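so my prof wants the structure for this chain in the tokens format not the other one, which i didnt know existed until like an hour ago. anyway here's the sequence
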Amino acid sequence: MKFTKMHGCGNDYIYIDCFKENVEDEKKAAIFLSDRHFGVGGDGIILIKKGTKADFEMVMYNADGSRGAMCGNGIRCVAKYVYDNQLTDKTLISIESMGSVKYIEVQAKNGKVVSAKVDMGAPVLDAAQIPVKSNKEKVINEKITVGGREFEMTCVSMGNPHAVMFIDESPKDFDLNYYGSLFEKNTDVFPDRVNAEFAKIIDRKNIEMRVYERGSGETLACGTGACATAVAAILSGRADNDVTVHLLGGDLEISWSGNEQDSVFMIGPAEYVFTGEVDI
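here's what i got, hopefully its the right format
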């Protein structure tokens, strides 16, 4: 089976062109291929298929074999792949993932995508829809104690559930694996588990963030997590409507009006790493 390794800000996935390849057991393939010692290595796999509600479908699996609903970095890479490989000549590409359709505007030079802007849709703030268990309709700046430490938490869904915590220390000095894993697996609060972001406000236009993703652990970047962090910062008055989120793997530009009905927009890179072939 042929594959293409790609990344967005270091958030790396193994992409399989299902116009040419057939994956019989997708969960098994995700676990095997994602293993960084015995497989190709990645945060998961993404299958590129023909869409039923959009131009293309992105089928995403985390490294543990669980299905992911949305990946902001991954969807930019899918857009680059289909354009660069002439599966489409559109510069506004629609891609569906678990029924949700996103629109990606690509900027191309010499027939290759150099950057992509994604309409990530409006953020979901209703606690029941995220889902997060709370006696309030929205969870914004709510106190939660995890691992003996008190945090202020804002919960947002960008197609997948996020809990955003603003901290005083640099995220680089924060014990992410300890606290992130406790948040992810706290099903008493997060019935479907959660992606946990720990962020520090640098100024009103810059946020530093690390992320612990459900099913994958720490990743170098998370597009939906960057969007959720920007939304949380804007909602709480910590940031302007246009911010740059600085992740370990690179920077993402996020824009949101602050109106709950308006879309969040994300601009970021998509890069090839290598191609290969593997028996599975």
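also thought this was worth mentioning. Residues 33 and 40 are 5 Å apart (CA to CA).
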